[in-house]
Amino acid sequence: MAFTVEQAKRMRAAFQNSGRIVQVGHQACSSGQMEDALQFLSDRRRMGRITAIRMDHFRNAPAGRPPWSRPARLTPEVNARNVDWPAFLGEAPAREFEARRFVNWRLYADYSGGGVYENMSQQICFWYKALDLRIPRAAFMSGGVLLWKDGREVPDTMTVALEQPEGILISWNSGFGNNHPGIAEQALGDQGTLWRGNQIRYLPQKIRRSGGNEMAGRRSSAPQAHVQNFLDAIRGTAKPSCPFELGYRVSIACRMALESHRLQRAVRWDEAKEEIV
User: Fold this and answer.
1) 20 within domain boundaries
2) CA angle at residue 253 from 167 to 239, to 5 degrees?
3) pLDDT of amino acid 221
4) Collapsing DSSP states into helix, strand and coil, what is residue 210?
5) Cis peptide before 76 (omega within 30 of 0)
6) Whole-angstrom distance, CA of residue 215 vs CA of residue 53
7) pTM for this one?
């Protein structure tokens, strides 16, 4: 939702004084999987005490086609006359117009949070909503450009750990050079597991719940569900599935991960000052 903590705070101030309905674009919040997860979680005995959430996001790309990189053969229309370069830069450091940076903005740390913002944000938002999680108490990120040596600045291989104040440790592992183990998440409780991939499933811990049964999610997701929810919220017949406050917490968690990577150390969230330290 926001690139920095300061931007998130400015957005919050604007939202609080606007009276507007805001929907943040983490569309899984409007999915049938979310409905299934909330139903599975409604009986606390199923999961017991959740202490860990493990998430993966691994993908690959054909040889010679680095992820997110558009061809160097840029169209003639991408030039200093046709691009509002100062508007594109925004609060990023000033520099001369560069067509490659404009077209491939996702590769550069001045404008992009890389896989953390593009992918981790979507995955952690699902669990932040399902479990009503707050901003992490601490975060650590390690990784780098280990494979795609094409001038990109954002890591292609990384791992993130988020220490939640609720007593849950979230781990996120990602890479752009191999598509195994794919994209999936597991919420781990001492009584059971929620596994989320193309489908969401509940798996009991038989050592503790010998009589527990596996269950598979059944609710489908319409392609336009998130937009439909937003329109219904505007009409007053629903609440936003991903309200501003949820997007705010997710954006701070993602910024904490990137700050940890930038500083090469763990960072913490000062709740009183609302600052990363």
Assistant:
1) yes
2) 90
3) 87
4) coil
5) no
6) 19
7) 0.94
Domains in the chain: how many in total? 1
DSSP 4: S
Task: Single out the residue of 237, 243, 245, 183 nearest to residue 59, CA to CA.
Answer: 183
Q: Are 2 and 13 in contact (CB under 8 A)?
A: no
182: left (phi over 0), alpha (psi -120 to 50) or beta: left
Query: How does pLDDT run across 198-239, given as a tens digit for each residue?
Result: 999 999 999 998 888 999 999 988 999 999 999 999 999 999
User: Which residues span the domain enclosing 27?
Assistant: 5-69+104-269
Sign of dihedral through CA atoms 80, 7, 258, 68?
negative
Residue at 79: amino acid letter: N
How confident is the model at residue 55, as a pLDDT?
Answer: 98
User: Which residue from 68, 36, 53, 25 is spatially nearest to 173, judged by alpha carbons?
Assistant: 53
Query: Tokens 């336009």 correspond to what residue?
Result: 224
Per DSSP bridges, beta strands 200-204 and 215-216 are antiparallel
Do strands 138-144 and 50-58 pair parallel, antiparallel, or not at all (unpaired)? unpaired
Residue showing tokens 């990189």: 69
Round to whole Å and give the CA distance between 53 and 32: 20
CATH number, domain of 229, equals 3.30.360.10
Q: Please give the Cα distance from 210 to 157 (Å, whole number).
A: 39
The C-alpha atoms of residue 157 and residue 172 are separated, in whole angstroms, by 11
CA–CA separation, 133 vs 129, rounded Å?
7
Q: What is the rounded CA–CA span in Å between residue 12 and residue 81?
A: 34
